[in-house]
C-alpha cells in the first residue's frame, strides 16, 4: 500500500479543515492557525496541536511534562501508557526523543483514534499503539510493575473525569509502575474549584511525594490554568526547578502545593 502523503505541517494531504467529523463522544475538526499550526478541536475545545516536527510542543503543560521526563532520566526501552490519546502529540514527541521507547495511548472515544491515524504522521505499532479503552480499565488490566511511565491527560470539559482522578485510579497507577517509575498528570484548576484538591490528595495517598509544575499565578490560585503533577522516587526536583526558572512563562515547582 502506498504511503499517504503529508503536508508540511504533518497533516495528511486532502484532509478538510473546519469540517465536523462525528466521533463517539461528540465532534472533532481540524483548524489551521495563522502560524501554520493545525489544531485538533474536540467538542469546541482545542485538544492537540499538529506539527510536522515532533520535537515542538505548543502547550506549556506538555513542555513541563517533557522536562519532567528528561530530569527523571528514562530507563532504556521505556514503556509508557498515555491515558487520554487525542491526537497523540505527547506520545509522538517522546517516541521521537527516546527512539527505543514504546507507547500505549488509550482513549475512551473509539472513533477519534482511527481518524487521527489517518490524519497525521504517527509512529506505527509497536512504537505507538492506540486503543479505544477507558483510562481506569487500561491500568486495572495491566500486570504489576509493567510500566515505566504513566501519563494522564484526559478531560471531560474543564475537568478530568472523576474516576480517573480518585484514589482508585492513583492506586492502580502506582501498582503498575516499575521501581522508580514516573506518573505525570495534567490537572485543570481554577480559583474556588475543588477537583484539583481531590486529585492531589489521591496522588499523595498513593505516591507519597508529589511535585507540582505550573505558572506562578496558577499555583497561587489567582487564575485558572493547568498544573502538572509529577510523582517518582527518581525525580530530580533541583533540575526541574532549573528548567522552570528558564521556561518561557513565569513557571515554578512546588512540593507543598495546595489548590
From TrEMBL:
Domain of life: Bacteria
CDD domains found in the cross-reference section: AdoMet_MTases
SUPFAM superfamilies the UniProt entry points to: S-adenosyl-L-methionine-dependent methyltransferases
InterPro entries named among the record's database cross-references: SAM-dependent_MTases_sf
Protein name from the UniProt record: Fused MFS/spermidine synthase
Lineage: Bacteria, Bacillati, Actinomycetota, Actinomycetes, Micrococcales
